[in-house]
Structure to design on (311 residues):
């Protein structure tokens, strides 16, 4: 049976209303929405930027020259190796770390189920001797790359790659995601140094997966799977949080849905990586890459966006 991505492309459907597998060490806290002040601030910034560039006031931020419709131009100097120092961790993580230390002192094994979350970072330092010039195009929104549509889910790395290629694009690399997310300032989060659950779709209530979920199309045709998926799903429509935008004008790169990327230099089945985090209380920032999900894995928190060379 065709999976979610193949079905989307073949049928011309603009979104997958999905959910999926539950990765280890990722739990959650309560839902959050964008505050009025954050929305007003983001709108004012976008308006000022648009006026300065001569584009309409309601136009989305970022360059688009040399890129197909719906994509953003990312260009600048990228630092491959950075140092990001956390100044304050989430209380849940600190509590869990103390439990781990006590267990170690007693010679006991301790399996953590709490993801590392940093509330505040010091300014990032570039450790590389030289920065690398990068220039490429990236989808402004998570696939299907339509503002207001729910991002596709229950998709494997393999099928995400095939879908991008069927559209004349490709999966983004790990470094491309990093740079599009953090900008030249190497920000831990797209919006800055301090974690803010009102700006991006992160830190939402954890809902335990209690049964295996099929790939999207089959799940939608199986009542039990569809019903369970609906209980788990906490995605937001693409671009619905105006403050969750990167310095280059790319939306939802932190939280909402984990995004598949390609890790160069690897062989099957290890070419796959997940970036950005999902809606739960996980790291949800730009640099970390989860690489234990293999190329044929799929989950309710896993989607993607595409990249392309500048034309």
């Amino acid at each position: 049976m065709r999976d979610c991505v193949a079905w989307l492309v073949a049928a011309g459907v603009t979104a997958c209303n999905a959910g999926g597998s539950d990765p280890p060490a990722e739990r959650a806290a309560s839902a959050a929405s964008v505050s009025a002040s954050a929305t007003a601030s983001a709108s004012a910034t976008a308006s000022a930027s648009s006026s300065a560039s001569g584009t309409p006031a309601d136009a989305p931020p970022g360059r688009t020259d040399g890129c197909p419709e719906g994509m953003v131009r990312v260009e600048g100097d990228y630092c491959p190796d950075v140092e990001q120092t956390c100044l304050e961790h989430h209380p849940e993580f600190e509590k869990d770390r103390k439990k781990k230390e006590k267990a170690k002192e007693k010679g006991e094994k301790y399996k953590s189920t709490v993801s590392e979350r940093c509330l505040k970072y010091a300014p990032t330092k570039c450790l590389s001797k030289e920065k690398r010039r990068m220039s490429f195009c990236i989808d402004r929104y998570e696939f299907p790359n339509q503002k207001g549509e729910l991002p596709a889910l229950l998709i494997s790395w393999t099928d995400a790659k095939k879908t991008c290629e069927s559209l004349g694009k490709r999966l983004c690399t790990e470094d491309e995601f990093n740079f599009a997310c953090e900008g030249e300032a190497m920000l831990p989060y797209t919006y800055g140094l301090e974690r803010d659950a009102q700006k991006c779709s992160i830190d939402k209530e954890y809902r335990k997966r209690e049964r295996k979920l099929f790939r999207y199309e089959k799940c939608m045709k199986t009542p039990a799977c569809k019903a369970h998926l609906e209980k788990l799903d906490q995605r937001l429509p693409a671009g619905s949080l105006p403050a969750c935008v990167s310095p280059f004008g790319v939306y939802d790169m932190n939280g909402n849905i984990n995004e598949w990327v390609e890790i160069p230099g690897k062989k099957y089945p290890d070419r796959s990586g997940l970036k950005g985090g999902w809606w739960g209380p996980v790291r949800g920032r730009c640099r970390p890459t989860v690489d234990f999900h293999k190329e044929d894995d799929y989950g309710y928190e896993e989607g993607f966006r595409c990249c392309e060379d500048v034309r």
The radius of gyration is 19 Å. Residues 170 and 252 are 19 Å apart (CA to CA).
